[in-house]
Write a structure and sequence with these properties.
Blueprint: H1 22-51, H2 55-83, H3 100-132, H4 151-181, H5 190-203, H6 211-228, H7 231-256
Helix pairs in contact: 1-2, 1-5, 2-4, 3-6, 3-7, 4-7, 5-6, 6-7
Length: 258
Amino acid sequence: MMATAQPTVLAAPASVPDQHSLPVSIALHLLPGVLYGLFYYLLGVPLAERIGFSSMWALNVGVLFVVLPVQMGYLLYQGKRKTGRFTLAGIVLFREKTPVTRLALSVTALMIWGAVILVVAGGLNDWLLHRFFAWVPHRYLLSWDSAGQAHTSKLIALLEGLVLGGFVGPVVQECYFRGFLLPRLSRFGVWGVALNAGLFSLYHVWAPWQWATRLLFLAPLIYAVWRTRDIRIGIWFHCFGNVLAVVGALIPELLNFS
């Protein structure tokens, strides 16, 4: 019998998520930051001053009252709209699994890069602040300290920051910015990475003097997430970096607590 030629089966191309138009993408990047900034300036800091807490306490409370409901709420709404149930499946993408060793090495390398940027370009923040943003009232500058703040209040704020700023905020933001928005810029290729990095830096409207260093700090991270399609790199880096920053301020307070 003659063998019958079998048709060649071509692999299906990797699915590409629906792409956002540029105006929609810009709005989805920046609007949550505007809401976060309004909360910080109009509600968070005035409340912190009234009850004897710092501006960092106000910023971290914003995670609970703005970041979580706005960003995670929008993702769940998109899941409900797409599937009929509240889910992140098919909404938060970039879920490929990088081998654990490579994941750890990537996060470590990014942390080293971040430390270098903070050392080399850290003075840029102060220069920009005093050169272009000297008009910002001192009360709105990010700090764990405030006038008349009790030691216990500062300790409470730091512990709160460890949870909200160290874990909740970073996880939600990485799901939203890297798992949802970044894949929907994939038609731009690596320029989508640059756009996501730039807009995410601008998202931090409460500290515009940090935009330049934040961009340098985060661009390699966003590229790594885009390149590997693994959002865990962003989550681990973001959480680890924020936790280290809080722990650096928390340890002296714990040592002095009596």
